[in-house]
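Collaborator request, handled under Task 6.
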Amino acid sequence: MHKKLTITIDERVYQGLHHVIGRGNISRFIESLVRPHVMRKDLEAAYRQMAADETREAEALEFAEAVIQDIKDETR
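Structure tokens returned to the collaborator:
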């Protein structure tokens, strides 16, 4: 379900939105910017999904261990 929202913005920002984003895409653009700041559960679900990907996690661990080894081998 979508809700209509009325906001007030500077006229130059308004014109820029129309020029750069396009008249029919402004709502989608603003929602994509705002969503990560207000939908924390989606972020948590995404992290859980990433953690469940065993191949990705193995590659991330391998990378992290290689970086740690590189740092350990550096002289100070």
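The cover message to the collaborator said: "Helices lie at 11-21, 26-38, 40-52, 54-73. The chain is about 75% helix and 0% strand. Please let us know whether this matches your experimental observations."
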